[in-house]
Amino acid sequence: MCGIVGLFLKNEALHAQLGALFKPMLVEMTSRGPDSAGVAIYRDPVADHETKFSLAHDDPAHDWDSLTQALADALRGQASVTQRDTTALLITDSDETQVRHWLAEHAPAVRLVGSGQSVEIYKETGLPEAVYRRFDLEGAAGQHMIGHTRMATESAVTTAGSHPFATGADLCLVHNGSLSNHNRLREQLKRKGVTFGSENDSEVAAAYLTWKLRNGVPLKQALQDALEELDGFFTFCVGTRDGFAVLRDPIACKHAVLAETDDWVAMATEYRAIATLPGSDRARIWEPKPATVYSWGAQGLDIEATDAPPSTVVPARRRAAAGGLH
Amino acid sequence: MNAQVESGGAASSANTLDLQAQGLREVNRTLHQACAQAVDGGNRTHWSVTHPLGQHAIACGLDQALAVDIQGHVGFYCAGMNQHAEVTVHGHAGVGVAENMMSGLVRVKGNASQSAGATGHGGLLVIEGDASSRCGISMKGIDIVVGGSVGHMSGFMAQLGHLVICGDAGEALGDSIYEAKLYVRGSVESLGADCIEKPMSDEHRATLAELLRRADIDADPAEFRRYGSARKLYHFDIDKAADY
To answer: Which pTM value belongs to this model?
Structure first.
Protein backbone atom coordinates (compact mmCIF):
# COMPACT_ATOMS: atom_id res chain seq x y z
CA MET A 1 0.00 0.00 0.00
CA CYS A 2 1.17 3.54 0.82
CA GLY A 3 0.01 6.69 -0.87
CA ILE A 4 2.10 9.39 -2.44
CA VAL A 5 1.08 12.85 -3.55
CA GLY A 6 2.77 15.82 -5.12
CA LEU A 7 1.52 19.30 -5.94
CA PHE A 8 3.28 21.94 -8.01
CA LEU A 9 1.56 25.31 -8.24
CA LYS A 10 2.09 26.97 -11.61
CA ASN A 11 -0.06 29.94 -10.68
CA GLU A 12 1.82 32.19 -8.25
CA ALA A 13 -1.44 33.58 -6.93
CA LEU A 14 -2.08 30.15 -5.37
CA HIS A 15 1.27 29.89 -3.54
CA ALA A 16 -0.24 31.28 -0.33
CA GLN A 17 -2.68 28.33 -0.33
CA LEU A 18 -0.15 25.53 -0.88
CA GLY A 19 -0.55 23.97 2.55
CA ALA A 20 -4.34 24.23 2.45
CA LEU A 21 -4.59 22.71 -1.05
CA PHE A 22 -2.18 19.92 -0.19
CA LYS A 23 -3.85 18.85 3.06
CA PRO A 24 -6.95 17.13 1.59
CA MET A 25 -4.73 15.36 -0.96
CA LEU A 26 -2.63 13.83 1.80
CA VAL A 27 -5.62 13.10 4.04
CA GLU A 28 -7.47 11.38 1.16
CA MET A 29 -4.59 8.88 1.03
CA THR A 30 -5.06 7.91 4.70
CA SER A 31 -6.67 4.58 3.84
CA ARG A 32 -3.56 3.68 1.84
CA GLY A 33 -1.21 4.60 4.68
CA PRO A 34 -2.51 5.19 8.20
CA ASP A 35 0.77 4.32 10.01
CA SER A 36 2.77 7.47 9.41
CA ALA A 37 2.94 10.46 7.14
CA GLY A 38 5.43 12.99 5.96
CA VAL A 39 5.85 15.90 3.63
CA ALA A 40 8.60 17.92 2.03
CA ILE A 41 7.75 21.54 1.47
CA TYR A 42 9.89 23.96 -0.50
CA ARG A 43 9.62 27.49 0.85
CA ASP A 44 11.48 30.46 2.33
CA PRO A 45 14.87 29.84 0.66
CA VAL A 46 17.83 30.88 2.80
CA ALA A 47 20.69 33.08 1.58
CA ASP A 48 23.23 31.53 -0.77
CA HIS A 49 25.86 31.18 1.94
CA GLU A 50 23.44 29.48 4.33
CA THR A 51 22.01 25.98 4.66
CA LYS A 52 18.67 24.97 6.11
CA PHE A 53 18.69 21.66 8.00
CA SER A 54 15.58 19.70 8.97
CA LEU A 55 16.45 17.97 12.25
CA ALA A 56 14.33 15.61 14.30
CA HIS A 57 14.41 14.31 17.85
CA ASP A 58 11.98 11.87 19.44
CA ASP A 59 11.44 14.22 22.39
CA PRO A 60 9.39 17.31 21.46
CA ALA A 61 10.90 19.01 24.56
CA HIS A 62 14.44 18.60 23.25
CA ASP A 63 16.57 21.68 23.96
CA TRP A 64 17.21 22.92 20.44
CA ASP A 65 18.39 26.36 21.54
CA SER A 66 21.33 24.98 23.53
CA LEU A 67 22.22 22.64 20.70
CA THR A 68 22.16 25.47 18.18
CA GLN A 69 24.29 27.71 20.41
CA ALA A 70 26.84 24.94 20.96
CA LEU A 71 27.01 24.28 17.22
CA ALA A 72 27.46 27.97 16.41
CA ASP A 73 30.20 28.30 19.02
CA ALA A 74 32.03 25.17 17.89
CA LEU A 75 31.92 25.99 14.20
CA ARG A 76 32.27 29.78 14.72
CA GLY A 77 29.29 30.57 12.57
CA GLN A 78 25.83 32.03 12.84
CA ALA A 79 22.96 29.66 13.53
CA SER A 80 19.28 30.02 14.32
CA VAL A 81 16.63 27.44 15.03
CA THR A 82 12.84 27.18 14.77
CA GLN A 83 11.05 24.26 16.37
CA ARG A 84 7.88 22.58 15.14
CA ASP A 85 6.94 19.67 17.39
CA THR A 86 9.57 16.94 16.95
CA THR A 87 11.31 18.75 14.10
CA ALA A 88 13.57 21.78 14.15
CA LEU A 89 14.79 23.93 11.28
CA LEU A 90 18.38 24.95 11.78
CA ILE A 91 19.71 27.71 9.53
CA THR A 92 23.44 28.28 9.59
CA ASP A 93 26.24 29.73 7.49
CA SER A 94 28.63 27.00 8.61
CA ASP A 95 29.91 24.41 6.17
CA GLU A 96 27.30 21.70 5.55
CA THR A 97 29.68 18.77 5.95
CA GLN A 98 31.10 20.20 9.16
CA VAL A 99 27.59 20.57 10.54
CA ARG A 100 26.79 16.97 9.67
CA HIS A 101 29.94 15.72 11.38
CA TRP A 102 29.41 17.92 14.43
CA LEU A 103 25.83 16.74 14.84
CA ALA A 104 26.81 13.08 14.44
CA GLU A 105 29.46 13.47 17.13
CA HIS A 106 27.78 15.78 19.63
CA ALA A 107 24.07 15.09 19.13
CA PRO A 108 23.76 11.43 18.11
CA ALA A 109 20.07 11.33 19.08
CA VAL A 110 19.29 14.07 16.56
CA ARG A 111 18.31 12.78 13.11
CA LEU A 112 19.28 14.88 10.13
CA VAL A 113 16.30 14.34 7.82
CA GLY A 114 16.99 16.89 5.13
CA SER A 115 19.04 19.86 4.08
CA GLY A 116 19.27 22.43 1.35
CA GLN A 117 18.29 26.00 0.61
CA SER A 118 14.54 25.67 0.78
CA VAL A 119 13.42 22.11 1.56
CA GLU A 120 11.80 21.33 4.91
CA ILE A 121 10.96 17.73 5.76
CA TYR A 122 8.36 16.88 8.38
CA LYS A 123 7.39 13.32 9.19
CA GLU A 124 5.96 11.38 12.09
CA THR A 125 4.03 8.27 12.96
CA GLY A 126 0.27 8.61 13.25
CA LEU A 127 -2.65 9.44 11.01
CA PRO A 128 -1.81 11.84 8.17
CA GLU A 129 -4.25 14.50 9.36
CA ALA A 130 -2.73 14.46 12.85
CA VAL A 131 0.81 14.62 11.49
CA TYR A 132 -0.14 17.54 9.26
CA ARG A 133 -1.62 19.38 12.22
CA ARG A 134 1.42 18.73 14.45
CA PHE A 135 3.67 20.54 12.03
CA ASP A 136 1.23 23.38 11.41
CA LEU A 137 1.30 22.94 7.64
CA GLU A 138 -2.20 24.03 6.67
CA GLY A 139 -1.22 27.68 6.45
CA ALA A 140 2.07 26.98 4.69
CA ALA A 141 2.87 28.96 1.54
CA GLY A 142 5.18 27.83 -1.22
CA GLN A 143 5.43 26.54 -4.75
CA HIS A 144 5.44 22.78 -4.32
CA MET A 145 5.14 19.93 -1.85
CA ILE A 146 5.38 16.17 -1.94
CA GLY A 147 3.98 13.83 0.67
CA HIS A 148 3.56 10.23 1.72
CA THR A 149 1.16 8.17 3.77
CA ARG A 150 2.72 4.92 4.94
CA MET A 151 1.42 1.42 5.46
CA ALA A 152 4.58 -0.34 6.60
CA THR A 153 5.42 -3.63 4.93
CA GLU A 154 9.20 -4.02 4.94
CA SER A 155 10.21 -2.47 8.26
CA ALA A 156 8.89 -1.12 11.55
CA VAL A 157 6.53 1.83 12.01
CA THR A 158 8.95 4.48 13.22
CA THR A 159 9.52 8.15 12.48
CA ALA A 160 12.91 7.30 10.98
CA GLY A 161 11.24 4.78 8.69
CA SER A 162 8.72 7.33 7.44
CA HIS A 163 9.00 9.21 4.18
CA PRO A 164 10.24 11.51 2.63
CA PHE A 165 13.90 10.49 2.64
CA ALA A 166 16.50 13.10 1.72
CA THR A 167 18.70 12.26 -1.24
CA GLY A 168 20.86 15.38 -1.38
CA ALA A 169 20.62 19.14 -1.15
CA ASP A 170 16.95 20.09 -1.63
CA LEU A 171 16.24 16.60 -2.93
CA CYS A 172 14.02 13.98 -1.36
CA LEU A 173 12.14 10.85 -2.23
CA VAL A 174 8.75 9.33 -1.47
CA HIS A 175 8.13 5.74 -2.52
CA ASN A 176 5.13 3.50 -3.03
CA GLY A 177 6.05 -0.14 -3.47
CA SER A 178 8.65 -2.46 -2.07
CA LEU A 179 12.16 -3.37 -3.10
CA SER A 180 13.39 -6.93 -3.03
CA ASN A 181 17.15 -6.35 -3.30
CA HIS A 182 17.39 -3.66 -0.62
CA ASN A 183 19.45 -5.73 1.84
CA ARG A 184 22.19 -6.45 -0.66
CA LEU A 185 22.12 -2.92 -2.03
CA ARG A 186 22.29 -1.49 1.51
CA GLU A 187 25.42 -3.54 2.22
CA GLN A 188 27.00 -2.41 -1.05
CA LEU A 189 26.24 1.23 -0.29
CA LYS A 190 27.53 0.89 3.30
CA ARG A 191 30.84 -0.29 1.89
CA LYS A 192 30.93 2.90 -0.17
CA GLY A 193 30.51 4.96 2.99
CA VAL A 194 26.75 5.64 2.86
CA THR A 195 25.09 5.62 6.27
CA PHE A 196 21.54 4.49 7.11
CA GLY A 197 19.09 5.49 9.80
CA SER A 198 16.56 2.67 9.44
CA GLU A 199 15.96 -0.79 8.01
CA ASN A 200 13.55 0.71 5.48
CA ASP A 201 13.74 -0.41 1.84
CA SER A 202 12.77 3.05 0.56
CA GLU A 203 15.69 4.56 2.45
CA VAL A 204 17.92 2.30 0.36
CA ALA A 205 16.40 3.76 -2.82
CA ALA A 206 17.03 7.25 -1.46
CA ALA A 207 20.57 6.33 -0.45
CA TYR A 208 21.18 4.85 -3.89
CA LEU A 209 20.12 8.12 -5.53
CA THR A 210 22.16 10.11 -2.99
CA TRP A 211 25.25 8.10 -3.79
CA LYS A 212 24.72 8.52 -7.55
CA LEU A 213 24.19 12.27 -7.21
CA ARG A 214 27.22 12.61 -4.93
CA ASN A 215 29.28 11.05 -7.71
CA GLY A 216 28.14 13.68 -10.17
CA VAL A 217 25.41 11.70 -11.93
CA PRO A 218 22.52 14.01 -12.93
CA LEU A 219 19.19 13.15 -11.30
CA LYS A 220 17.61 12.12 -14.59
CA GLN A 221 20.40 9.62 -15.23
CA ALA A 222 20.32 8.45 -11.62
CA LEU A 223 16.62 7.66 -11.96
CA GLN A 224 17.22 5.79 -15.19
CA ASP A 225 20.02 3.82 -13.52
CA ALA A 226 17.61 3.01 -10.70
CA LEU A 227 15.43 1.19 -13.24
CA GLU A 228 18.32 -1.19 -13.84
CA GLU A 229 19.61 -1.63 -10.32
CA LEU A 230 16.57 -1.52 -8.06
CA ASP A 231 14.70 -4.81 -8.06
CA GLY A 232 11.11 -4.67 -6.95
CA PHE A 233 8.18 -2.47 -7.66
CA PHE A 234 7.96 1.21 -7.13
CA THR A 235 6.42 4.51 -7.98
CA PHE A 236 8.79 7.30 -6.94
CA CYS A 237 8.11 10.97 -6.55
CA VAL A 238 11.30 13.00 -6.16
CA GLY A 239 11.10 16.54 -4.82
CA THR A 240 13.62 18.99 -6.23
CA ARG A 241 14.33 22.66 -5.55
CA ASP A 242 12.20 23.70 -8.53
CA GLY A 243 9.59 20.99 -8.82
CA PHE A 244 9.21 17.24 -8.76
CA ALA A 245 9.84 14.15 -10.86
CA VAL A 246 7.85 10.91 -11.12
CA LEU A 247 9.09 7.46 -12.09
CA ARG A 248 7.39 4.05 -12.18
CA ASP A 249 9.11 0.68 -12.47
CA PRO A 250 8.98 -1.12 -15.85
CA ILE A 251 6.02 -3.31 -14.90
CA ALA A 252 4.15 -0.40 -13.30
CA CYS A 253 2.03 -2.39 -10.91
CA LYS A 254 1.89 0.45 -8.39
CA HIS A 255 -0.77 2.97 -9.27
CA ALA A 256 0.01 6.54 -10.26
CA VAL A 257 -1.93 9.32 -11.91
CA LEU A 258 -0.91 12.77 -13.10
CA ALA A 259 -3.13 15.77 -13.72
CA GLU A 260 -2.52 19.25 -15.00
CA THR A 261 -4.44 22.50 -15.33
CA ASP A 262 -3.27 26.03 -16.09
CA ASP A 263 -2.91 26.50 -12.32
CA TRP A 264 -1.23 23.33 -11.09
CA VAL A 265 0.32 19.94 -11.74
CA ALA A 266 -0.55 17.13 -9.35
CA MET A 267 0.64 13.58 -8.87
CA ALA A 268 -1.06 10.97 -6.71
CA THR A 269 -1.32 7.24 -6.18
CA GLU A 270 -5.05 7.54 -6.82
CA TYR A 271 -7.12 10.16 -8.60
CA ARG A 272 -9.35 10.71 -5.56
CA ALA A 273 -6.48 12.63 -3.95
CA ILE A 274 -6.40 14.96 -6.95
CA ALA A 275 -10.20 15.28 -7.06
CA THR A 276 -9.95 17.54 -4.01
CA LEU A 277 -8.16 20.26 -6.02
CA PRO A 278 -10.09 23.15 -7.59
CA GLY A 279 -10.58 22.57 -11.31
CA SER A 280 -9.72 18.84 -11.13
CA ASP A 281 -12.84 17.96 -13.11
CA ARG A 282 -11.47 19.99 -16.03
CA ALA A 283 -7.85 18.85 -15.66
CA ARG A 284 -5.93 16.88 -18.24
CA ILE A 285 -5.47 13.55 -16.54
CA TRP A 286 -3.21 10.69 -17.56
CA GLU A 287 -1.35 7.74 -16.20
CA PRO A 288 2.47 7.94 -16.26
CA LYS A 289 3.99 5.28 -18.50
CA PRO A 290 6.26 2.61 -17.05
CA ALA A 291 10.02 3.23 -16.89
CA THR A 292 9.61 6.84 -17.93
CA VAL A 293 10.78 9.94 -16.05
CA TYR A 294 8.27 12.81 -15.84
CA SER A 295 9.22 16.14 -14.32
CA TRP A 296 8.03 19.66 -13.68
CA GLY A 297 10.13 22.71 -13.05
CA ALA A 298 13.03 20.46 -12.24
CA GLN A 299 16.03 22.25 -13.70
CA GLY A 300 18.22 20.11 -11.47
CA LEU A 301 17.09 17.14 -13.52
CA ASP A 302 18.66 18.57 -16.63
CA ILE A 303 15.28 18.33 -18.27
CA GLU A 304 13.62 21.27 -19.95
CA ALA A 305 10.72 22.48 -17.90
CA THR A 306 7.60 22.64 -20.00
CA ASP A 307 3.91 22.50 -19.45
CA ALA A 308 3.29 19.99 -22.21
CA PRO A 309 3.68 16.53 -20.69
CA PRO A 310 4.68 14.61 -23.84
CA SER A 311 7.83 16.68 -24.18
CA THR A 312 8.72 16.29 -20.52
CA VAL A 313 8.76 12.55 -20.93
CA VAL A 314 12.13 10.89 -20.99
CA PRO A 315 11.71 7.29 -22.05
CA ALA A 316 14.15 4.98 -20.38
CA ARG A 317 15.10 1.55 -21.56
CA ARG A 318 12.06 -0.69 -21.40
CA ARG A 319 12.46 -4.12 -19.95
CA ALA A 320 10.20 -6.76 -21.43
CA ALA A 321 7.49 -7.42 -18.92
CA ALA A 322 6.60 -10.73 -20.48
CA GLY A 323 7.94 -14.01 -19.31
CA GLY A 324 8.44 -13.14 -15.68
CA LEU A 325 4.89 -13.52 -14.54
CA HIS A 326 4.19 -17.20 -15.09
CA MET B 1 -7.45 11.70 -24.91
CA ASN B 2 -8.50 14.89 -23.29
CA ALA B 3 -11.74 13.69 -21.75
CA GLN B 4 -13.07 16.30 -19.46
CA VAL B 5 -16.05 15.74 -17.30
CA GLU B 6 -19.07 16.28 -19.44
CA SER B 7 -22.56 16.12 -18.26
CA GLY B 8 -24.51 13.54 -20.17
CA GLY B 9 -27.13 10.89 -20.26
CA ALA B 10 -30.32 12.91 -19.99
CA ALA B 11 -29.59 13.65 -16.35
CA SER B 12 -32.63 15.88 -16.08
CA SER B 13 -35.05 12.96 -16.25
CA ALA B 14 -32.97 10.79 -13.94
CA ASN B 15 -33.04 10.44 -10.19
CA THR B 16 -29.95 12.24 -8.99
CA LEU B 17 -27.60 11.04 -6.27
CA ASP B 18 -24.92 13.49 -5.10
CA LEU B 19 -22.05 11.32 -3.92
CA GLN B 20 -20.25 14.22 -2.26
CA ALA B 21 -23.31 14.99 -0.14
CA GLN B 22 -24.64 11.47 0.42
CA GLY B 23 -21.47 9.43 0.60
CA LEU B 24 -20.47 6.31 -1.32
CA ARG B 25 -22.30 3.78 0.83
CA GLU B 26 -25.58 5.66 0.65
CA VAL B 27 -25.30 5.97 -3.14
CA ASN B 28 -24.62 2.27 -3.58
CA ARG B 29 -27.33 1.31 -1.07
CA THR B 30 -29.86 3.40 -2.99
CA LEU B 31 -28.86 1.82 -6.29
CA HIS B 32 -29.12 -1.67 -4.80
CA GLN B 33 -32.57 -0.85 -3.43
CA ALA B 34 -33.56 0.31 -6.90
CA CYS B 35 -32.39 -3.06 -8.23
CA ALA B 36 -34.54 -4.84 -5.65
CA GLN B 37 -37.55 -2.71 -6.56
CA ALA B 38 -36.97 -3.18 -10.28
CA VAL B 39 -37.64 -6.89 -9.76
CA ASP B 40 -41.16 -5.90 -8.67
CA GLY B 41 -41.67 -3.64 -11.67
CA GLY B 42 -40.46 -0.44 -10.03
CA ASN B 43 -39.85 2.39 -12.44
CA ARG B 44 -37.01 4.25 -10.74
CA THR B 45 -34.50 2.79 -13.14
CA HIS B 46 -32.59 5.82 -14.40
CA TRP B 47 -30.02 7.33 -12.04
CA SER B 48 -27.47 10.06 -12.26
CA VAL B 49 -24.55 10.12 -9.79
CA THR B 50 -22.94 13.54 -9.45
CA HIS B 51 -19.60 14.51 -7.85
CA PRO B 52 -18.07 11.00 -7.88
CA LEU B 53 -14.70 12.49 -6.79
CA GLY B 54 -12.71 9.49 -7.92
CA GLN B 55 -14.18 7.30 -5.18
CA HIS B 56 -13.90 3.52 -5.43
CA ALA B 57 -16.53 0.85 -6.11
CA ILE B 58 -19.26 3.20 -7.36
CA ALA B 59 -22.29 1.33 -8.76
CA CYS B 60 -20.79 -2.06 -7.95
CA GLY B 61 -22.88 -5.19 -7.84
CA LEU B 62 -25.95 -3.93 -9.71
CA ASP B 63 -28.04 -6.88 -10.87
CA GLN B 64 -31.03 -5.36 -12.68
CA ALA B 65 -31.45 -3.28 -15.83
CA LEU B 66 -30.86 0.14 -14.29
CA ALA B 67 -29.29 2.95 -16.31
CA VAL B 68 -26.69 4.80 -14.25
CA ASP B 69 -24.87 7.89 -15.51
CA ILE B 70 -21.86 8.89 -13.40
CA GLN B 71 -21.03 12.53 -14.00
CA GLY B 72 -17.27 12.65 -13.50
CA HIS B 73 -14.13 10.61 -12.91
CA VAL B 74 -14.41 7.42 -10.88
CA GLY B 75 -11.87 5.49 -8.80
CA PHE B 76 -11.20 1.76 -8.68
CA TYR B 77 -13.60 -1.10 -9.49
CA CYS B 78 -16.47 1.03 -10.78
CA ALA B 79 -19.44 -1.09 -11.94
CA GLY B 80 -17.70 -4.27 -10.79
CA MET B 81 -19.70 -7.51 -10.98
CA ASN B 82 -22.30 -5.74 -13.09
CA GLN B 83 -25.32 -7.72 -14.28
CA HIS B 84 -27.90 -6.28 -16.72
CA ALA B 85 -27.30 -2.62 -15.79
CA GLU B 86 -26.02 0.06 -18.16
CA VAL B 87 -23.42 2.16 -16.39
CA THR B 88 -21.88 5.16 -18.18
CA VAL B 89 -18.87 7.01 -16.76
CA HIS B 90 -18.79 10.56 -18.12
CA GLY B 91 -15.10 10.91 -17.33
CA HIS B 92 -12.09 8.65 -16.70
CA ALA B 93 -12.15 5.39 -14.74
CA GLY B 94 -9.56 4.08 -12.28
CA VAL B 95 -8.21 0.55 -11.88
CA GLY B 96 -10.45 -2.45 -12.59
CA VAL B 97 -13.51 -0.82 -14.14
CA ALA B 98 -16.25 -3.44 -14.75
CA GLU B 99 -14.12 -6.03 -13.00
CA ASN B 100 -15.80 -9.43 -13.15
CA MET B 101 -18.78 -8.06 -15.11
CA MET B 102 -21.37 -10.75 -15.87
CA SER B 103 -23.67 -8.96 -18.32
CA GLY B 104 -24.99 -5.52 -19.25
CA LEU B 105 -23.06 -2.55 -20.60
CA VAL B 106 -20.39 -0.39 -19.03
CA ARG B 107 -19.21 2.60 -21.04
CA VAL B 108 -16.30 4.88 -20.12
CA LYS B 109 -16.35 8.13 -22.09
CA GLY B 110 -12.74 8.92 -21.16
CA ASN B 111 -9.73 6.69 -20.43
CA ALA B 112 -9.52 3.67 -18.16
CA SER B 113 -6.66 2.72 -15.85
CA GLN B 114 -5.14 -0.72 -15.41
CA SER B 115 -6.97 -4.07 -15.52
CA ALA B 116 -10.15 -2.80 -17.19
CA GLY B 117 -12.70 -5.59 -17.48
CA ALA B 118 -10.51 -8.00 -15.52
CA THR B 119 -11.96 -11.51 -15.20
CA GLY B 120 -15.24 -10.40 -16.83
CA HIS B 121 -17.62 -13.23 -17.71
CA GLY B 122 -20.03 -11.41 -20.02
CA GLY B 123 -21.56 -8.15 -21.15
CA LEU B 124 -19.90 -5.34 -23.07
CA LEU B 125 -17.30 -2.88 -21.76
CA VAL B 126 -16.68 0.12 -24.00
CA ILE B 127 -13.76 2.45 -23.31
CA GLU B 128 -13.99 5.34 -25.71
CA GLY B 129 -10.48 6.61 -24.87
CA ASP B 130 -7.35 4.62 -24.00
CA ALA B 131 -6.99 1.78 -21.54
CA SER B 132 -3.85 1.23 -19.51
CA SER B 133 -1.95 -1.99 -18.92
CA ARG B 134 -3.54 -5.43 -18.40
CA CYS B 135 -6.79 -4.51 -20.11
CA GLY B 136 -8.92 -7.67 -20.21
CA ILE B 137 -6.60 -9.63 -17.93
CA SER B 138 -8.03 -13.12 -17.40
CA MET B 139 -11.25 -12.20 -19.24
CA LYS B 140 -13.71 -15.10 -19.29
CA GLY B 141 -16.35 -14.17 -21.85
CA ILE B 142 -16.71 -10.39 -21.62
CA ASP B 143 -16.46 -8.31 -24.80
CA ILE B 144 -14.26 -5.22 -24.52
CA VAL B 145 -14.04 -2.49 -27.17
CA VAL B 146 -11.37 0.17 -26.69
CA GLY B 147 -11.62 3.24 -28.92
CA GLY B 148 -7.97 4.14 -28.33
CA SER B 149 -4.87 2.19 -27.36
CA VAL B 150 -4.08 -0.28 -24.58
CA GLY B 151 -0.98 -0.64 -22.38
CA HIS B 152 1.34 -3.55 -21.76
CA MET B 153 0.21 -7.08 -20.84
CA SER B 154 -3.32 -6.57 -22.17
CA GLY B 155 -5.26 -9.78 -22.65
CA PHE B 156 -2.95 -11.58 -20.21
CA MET B 157 -4.28 -15.14 -19.72
CA ALA B 158 -7.49 -14.12 -21.51
CA GLN B 159 -9.75 -17.14 -21.61
CA LEU B 160 -12.88 -16.21 -23.55
CA GLY B 161 -14.56 -13.22 -25.17
CA HIS B 162 -13.35 -10.48 -27.50
CA LEU B 163 -10.92 -7.62 -26.94
CA VAL B 164 -11.16 -5.02 -29.72
CA ILE B 165 -8.43 -2.36 -29.78
CA CYS B 166 -8.98 0.46 -32.27
CA GLY B 167 -5.56 2.00 -31.56
CA ASP B 168 -2.25 0.34 -30.67
CA ALA B 169 -1.37 -2.41 -28.19
CA GLY B 170 1.58 -2.20 -25.77
CA GLU B 171 4.15 -4.90 -25.21
CA ALA B 172 3.33 -8.54 -24.47
CA LEU B 173 -0.19 -8.52 -25.88
CA GLY B 174 -2.10 -11.69 -25.09
CA ASP B 175 0.61 -13.28 -22.98
CA SER B 176 -0.36 -16.86 -22.06
CA ILE B 177 -3.69 -16.39 -23.78
CA TYR B 178 -6.31 -19.13 -23.88
CA GLU B 179 -9.33 -18.81 -26.20
CA ALA B 180 -10.16 -15.08 -26.17
CA LYS B 181 -9.99 -13.33 -29.55
CA LEU B 182 -8.02 -10.12 -29.88
CA TYR B 183 -8.57 -7.61 -32.70
CA VAL B 184 -6.10 -4.72 -33.14
CA ARG B 185 -6.35 -1.95 -35.73
CA GLY B 186 -3.01 -0.25 -34.99
CA SER B 187 0.43 -1.55 -34.16
CA VAL B 188 1.33 -4.20 -31.60
CA GLU B 189 4.52 -3.43 -29.71
CA SER B 190 5.13 -7.12 -29.04
CA LEU B 191 3.16 -10.32 -28.62
CA GLY B 192 3.32 -12.22 -25.34
CA ALA B 193 4.16 -15.88 -24.96
CA ASP B 194 1.97 -18.17 -27.07
CA CYS B 195 0.05 -15.31 -28.72
CA ILE B 196 0.13 -15.29 -32.53
CA GLU B 197 -1.51 -13.47 -35.38
CA LYS B 198 -4.31 -15.42 -37.02
CA PRO B 199 -6.11 -14.98 -40.33
CA MET B 200 -9.25 -12.85 -40.54
CA SER B 201 -12.17 -14.65 -42.15
CA ASP B 202 -15.53 -13.16 -43.16
CA GLU B 203 -16.93 -14.65 -39.99
CA HIS B 204 -14.40 -12.75 -37.86
CA ARG B 205 -15.06 -9.51 -39.75
CA ALA B 206 -18.79 -9.95 -39.17
CA THR B 207 -18.26 -10.56 -35.43
CA LEU B 208 -16.01 -7.51 -35.24
CA ALA B 209 -18.46 -5.32 -37.17
CA GLU B 210 -21.22 -6.30 -34.75
CA LEU B 211 -19.04 -5.52 -31.71
CA LEU B 212 -18.13 -2.10 -33.12
CA ARG B 213 -21.79 -1.42 -33.91
CA ARG B 214 -22.85 -2.33 -30.36
CA ALA B 215 -20.02 -0.18 -28.97
CA ASP B 216 -21.08 2.69 -31.23
CA ILE B 217 -17.49 3.14 -32.37
CA ASP B 218 -16.82 4.04 -35.97
CA ALA B 219 -14.03 1.85 -37.35
CA ASP B 220 -13.63 -0.28 -40.45
CA PRO B 221 -13.37 -4.00 -39.60
CA ALA B 222 -11.18 -4.48 -42.67
CA GLU B 223 -8.39 -2.53 -40.97
CA PHE B 224 -8.02 -4.93 -38.04
CA ARG B 225 -5.73 -7.88 -37.49
CA ARG B 226 -6.67 -10.83 -35.33
CA TYR B 227 -4.53 -12.41 -32.61
CA GLY B 228 -5.11 -15.47 -30.48
CA SER B 229 -3.58 -18.48 -28.83
CA ALA B 230 -1.08 -20.77 -30.54
CA ARG B 231 -2.31 -23.34 -27.99
CA LYS B 232 1.24 -24.47 -27.26
CA LEU B 233 1.42 -23.24 -23.69
CA TYR B 234 -1.73 -24.34 -21.97
CA HIS B 235 -1.35 -28.02 -22.77
CA PHE B 236 1.57 -29.28 -20.73
CA ASP B 237 4.40 -30.28 -22.99
CA ILE B 238 7.55 -31.67 -21.43
CA ASP B 239 9.61 -30.32 -24.32
CA LYS B 240 8.49 -26.80 -23.40
CA ALA B 241 8.90 -27.14 -19.64
CA ALA B 242 11.34 -24.24 -19.63
CA ASP B 243 8.65 -21.92 -21.00
CA TYR B 244 6.23 -22.46 -18.15
So the answer is: 0.88
